[in-house]
Structures are given as structure tokens and as C-alpha cells.
Amino acid sequence: MQSGNDPSGLEHVKGWILDLYPSTLGQMTVWIIAKNHERVRLVDEFKPKVYISGKKEDLEELSARFYANRLIASCDFAFKYANPAATEKSKVLEVALEDCRSLPFFVRRVLEAGEYLRYQLYNCDLKSTHSYLYDREVFPLAFVEIEIGRHRLKYHLLDSVESVHYKIPPLRTMRIHVDIAKKRRVASFDDPIERLVLSQGNKKIIIDSSCEKDKLLQLVSTVKKLDPDILFTRGGDAHVLPYLARRASINNVSDNFVLSRENSPFIVKRIPGTTYFSYGRTYYRAPTRRLYGRIHIDEYNSFLQRDSGLDGLIEIARTCRVPLHKASRSSIGTSMSSLQFCQAVKDGVLIPRNKHMPEAFKSAYELLVGDRGGFVYEPRMGIHDHVGEVDFSAMYPSLMAKYNISAGTVLCNCCPDSKLRIPELGFQICEKRVGIVPKALRLVIAKRLHYKKLKGETKNRRLREIYDRRQQALKWILVTCFGYLGYRNAKFGTVDGHIGVCAYGREAFLQAAHIAERRGFRVVHGIVDSLWLRKTGATAQEYARLCREISEEIGVPLNFEGLYKWIVFLPSRIHPNVAVLNRYYGVREDGTIKVRGIEIRRRDTPKFVHDAQMSMIRTLATANDSKAFVTKIPHALKIVKRYRRKLLEGQILIWNLIVTKRLSKSIESYKQRVSQAIAAEQLLKEGVEIAAGKSVRFLFTNAENRRYERRVRAEELLEEGTNSDVKKYLRLLYSATSNILSPFGYSEKDIYDAVRNHRCKKIHAFC
């Protein structure tokens, strides 16, 4: 390591923060990618701080108990804002612990000492790595210069979290793939390794020696030699790494099985995965398999990696101050909370252990008026020509930032005469200080808008892709922040603020619609923050002018998303005469196809049906208006006929018929023998671990069989000669076709008649 020395004898390292974690007692290990491309391990003294509030005499009694306590490094009184609504700082007890790992034990002891009533604890829920980043005012992959003292590191930040032109170090990445020599139909941890495939850039290394012990040791030596910063796996948390650790144990090389940069063997702890419920769905998250000094990213266990790639993942880690390995697995809400916590620490606002800001009392009338959600215009069902789509950019986050919506600012005690009032309810909003939530959101909103601008300006294809991934990742923060504002456990959330944002949103939405109508536009459909407008002869420039006018008047940016050649708003599948808010498809003038709420957007649609429906829509997209659209319907039906013939003749690969469904609950909780539960039972019998939230892939084999176990077959159990239920897949095909053609009078039976016969009265009627 090259370093300069100053007169005080301190070493200097300049580089990027890659990884950090607690190591020995009272210390945090930090890995740096130095500017000279070396990977440097540093150790910093770190003593996390916890704050305690209560009566003065109780705190003095408690501080006396802490004297000579081996867990405590120091104890003193400090002045902090005890809650987000506080206008003055309170005197609280500040306790620095010797080691972050003693924090849960310490918290429990304090609560017991106060009989769970006398003391309120703060900043005790922060992860040690997060707390370290907040305290040192740095963030993952920040470019820093570090002075290395005997016990402590001193950071000089040469980067900025607000920056959109930051550089990241040349990260070395590697992928690990494991082929297992299965002894049964489903691979298990008792099956030996067949071969290992390591990929780094264009280089591929295949490890397939005859001895399994040698394969494992060769894997270790190859990882050490190529020294990746990021190790990618598919299923590494749930299966790959635990499996390799098991094989190392069986071959008596556990002590040599080292994948981290730290010279410590990889050990798998028996930690169950987590099933959780979010926005109406059940999800499963496998336990984290952590490496030290390297970042392990499981692509099957990382929403951000799948959606926004490594560029988006790094953006979230930097902006929200979340370690890279944690950001890859955390929910968006967790990352957003970290951003708020960092802001609170910076402002001297304590983070409570338990949220204790109750919702304001409301009469039945106030609830009826205020708690109504977003505003919608029911779509005019059917096909429409030359419709323009306009969309508020991050409407709710923008309103939260603009009107200072946060815990402590809505219904504050310091501004009873505030001129800033929530529409309809009249709740006052603080005019003296800005809340934690708006402060945090303003950074995200500003960065995302800047990235979108840069994306439109640059001609460099690679840069355009990077900017798009970064703004897409930040979009998820903005999408989540509104729902999280009303979440009961959000530390800086507020139900009253959540209701208020909806009220502001309805007001802005109606204003936009009225302005558009005054300019001669007709509202075809509207939902919360998007409007579909139509005006005979209106050009894209006229829509853009309308958006600028509305943005200036309302104060929330409204964007023109595009002009459609035609757009079809679809009816409910259950009630054919009722339009559905979010089921439509259309083609813009630039040829872009946009769809919502139909099969090609669903994750449980087999590829066979997805491809057929997509092919039909592409054929219909060649029409320039509704009249031409109708003439294309026979061509779309020919596509259905072609896919039907392929299925009947056995030309569709079995893998293109696989259906993926998520288990919404545990197997024993299912009262009906639904397809995913049947497939899960089959896997369970083969020793596969099944949990609510996991996805199951299966093939329909005989969907109407009275013996339920014969209706489907789990993908892992498919054998040569397994036949699909052709009748079931034809019904899925006809259903997907009728879904997009139902506004034109086509039912599943009509589709069936059309593709089986050379002539169809309905086709000729429309032609």
C-alpha cells in the first residue's frame, strides 16, 4: 500500500468504501478499494450511542447504576430533540457502549430496570453499520481520504451524496454456478458436486475434477486468486452457499473453505427465512449469507439487482447510507427509513424505540370527508383515437416535500394559526421548521429529476443506461414513501399526514383536469396522478404546453408521456359492462406499446400464452387508428390459430408451458386444492423446503382430474414423457385473447369458434 506520511506520523489512504462490519470488541472493520487498486483492510474504534429519557431523578439513579459497568464506555447528559414535534431540546442520558453487539442485552436491562414504563430509549434499533456511517458522515462507495491513527480513522469526504456525476471504482465481479449430481429427482445437500463454473468478465473457469474435495479447494484458491469485490449467485442465500458449506463439511475441509477476504471459514448458521406481507402480497426472503470484505449478491434474493442492476443498487446504497450487501436484500422501505434516520441524526432528533405519536381524533364526518384516497375518473370503455397521456412526476412525494408533511409538522403545537392548511380537514402544518420526511425526500426528488434530464441529454448509450437505472432505483423510494408515511411502525410516519397528502393530491388532480377541460381537452380516463386526454387535432406540442401551464399553476411537475395512435380501455372480466381502472393497452405514435393489467404483465402467465398475446398486440399495433384496428382483428385471430396448431402438434416446448405462482400462505392453511399448493406438496414430499411467500413452478398435466395430485406436476419433478393438459392451455390462450378483444364483442366461445372455423360471423361483422 502506498501512502503519504504527515508530521504526526499518520498514514493516509485514498479510495472508496466497499464493505464494513463489526470485528473485535469495540471495533469496526472497513474495506477500502484504494486509488492504486489495492484492497485495504482498516480497523476503526466505534462505540455506538444510546439515548434514554425519563424523569430527572430516575435518569440520575440510572446513571449511578452504570458506574463501573463493563458494557459502558461512557455516560453523560446531552441535549437532543426527544421527538419530531419537539421545539426545544430535552436533557437525555447519552450512553456509549463498549461494543455494538451488547446493545440488545443493554436495552433489555434498562427496560427491566424501569419496569418498561419509566424510561424511553432512542437510537437503539439502528444497525451498527448504519450507525457507524451516520456517525462518520460517510456512505458506501464514497470516495474518501482516511487518516489512520492508532485506534481511530479520520475521514475526509472527497465525494457528495448529492452528486450525480460520481465515479465508482473498477469493481471486480465474479459469478458462481453449481451443477449437482442428483441422486434423486430433486437435488439435496447430500448429493455431490458435479462441477463448478466461475465467470469473471469473458473468462470462464470450469472446475470438474473427479475428487469433490479438490473441487472445493480449487474453488477457494480461484476466488482468492481472482479476488472479486462482488460475488454474484442465483439462489446463493437459499441454496448455493449453504450447499457448498455442507459439502465442505462432509469432505472435512470446512476449516479451509474460505470465500471472504477475511481469513475465516464460511459457516452457515441455521437461520430460517422470513415470510412477510406487503401491499396485498406474501413474500419470502431467504436468510442473508454474508461474506466479509466481499459483497455477496443473490440475484434471486435482490429486488433492486433484478430491477435496476448494479448501477441502481449502488445509487440506493449511496443515497440511503445502507451497506451494499444490505441494500441488495432490504426492502425499499428499509432503505428509505435509513435515509430518514440519517437525516434525524444530522438534525439532532432522536429515533424512538417505539413510535408514540397517536393519530388525532376525528369525527365520523371528518373521516368520511378526509380519508378517501386518490381521485379517479372512470375510463370510457373501448378504443379511443389520438389520446394523450399526462402524468404527475412523483406526485405524492412532491406534495409531501412541498407542503412539509411529516411526523411533528402536521397538527404541530407551535403553529396553531398556520396559514398552511390541509384541504377539507383544515389541519395546520408547521411553518417554523421542515420535517424529517420532506428533507429526506427533497434529495431523492432532485437527484431523480437530474438523472432523467441527463438521460435525455446524453448521446452516450452506456451513460444513458446508467442514468436510467439510477433514476429507476430512486423511483422506488418515491413510490414507497407515501405508503410508508401511513405505516404504523414508521418512526417518522403520520396517519394524519397520509390523509393530508391524499387531500392535496385530489385537489391537484381536479385542478389539472379542470384546466385541461377549459383548454378544450376531454378526460377519457384518470387515476390518482395520471390523466388520459383527448382533443381533436391536438399535437404533442399542445399537450406539452398544457403540462407546463398546469405545472406552473399547481406547483407539481406534470409530464407529457406521449400521444397514442389508439388506446383500448378494457372491461372487468366478471362484470363486462364495467370498465376497470388499470386494465388497458395501446400504441403510441413512436411505436411504443404500453399495457397494464393483462396476461403479459402477470408473473403467473406461461411463456406460451405471453408470446401469443404479445404477438397479437404487435399485429394490432400496426394499425394507425380504430378503423384500421378493426381490420387487424382477423390477423390477430390467425396468430391464435397458429399457436393453437403448434400446441396441438406438440411443437411448444414443455418449459414454455410452466406456470409460476406464489404461495400466499403455508401449505397446511390452504383449504382448497389450488394448483400451487398441490405442486408445493409434491416438492415437500421430496424434501424441498417450502414456506409462505416462495414461488412454485409447475405444469398443468390434467387440470380436471378428480385426483388432485395428478392435476399439476412441479417443474423439478418433470420427467421425460410427461404430457401437458392441452385443453387447459388452450383455455388460457382463448382467455388471453378474449381479454384484449372483449370490448369488440369477443367472448372465449367466439374465439374458440373463430380459430376452429374458417369463417366467423363476428369477424365479418367488424370488418
* Annotation, overall tally of beta strands: 27
Quickly count the domains. Answer: 4
CATH class of the largest domain: Alpha Beta
Unreliable parts: 1-9, 760-767
Specify Rg, calculated over alpha carbons: 30 Å
Structural class: alpha+beta
Mean pLDDT over the full residue set: 90
- Count of separate DSSP helical elements: 20
In the CATH hierarchy, the architecture of the largest domain is Alpha-Beta Complex
Q: What percentage of residues falls in helices of 4 or more residues?
A: 25-40%
Distance between the termini: 77 Å
Query: Rough shape?
Result: globular
At the fold tier of CATH, the topology name of the largest domain is: Palm domain of DNA polymerase
Strand content: 15-25%
Task: Outline the structure in words.
There is one protein chain. The protein is α+β, with helices and mostly antiparallel strands and 767 residues long. The protein has four domains: 77 residues, Alpha-Beta Plaits; 134 residues, Ribonuclease H-like superfamily/Ribonuclease H (Nucleotidyltransferase, domain 5, 2-Layer Sandwich); 229 residues, Palm domain of DNA polymerase, CATH 3.90.1600; 120 residues, B family DNA polymerase, thumb domain (Topoisomerase I, Chain A, domain 4). Helices cover 37% and strands 22% of the residues. The N terminus and C terminus are likely disordered.
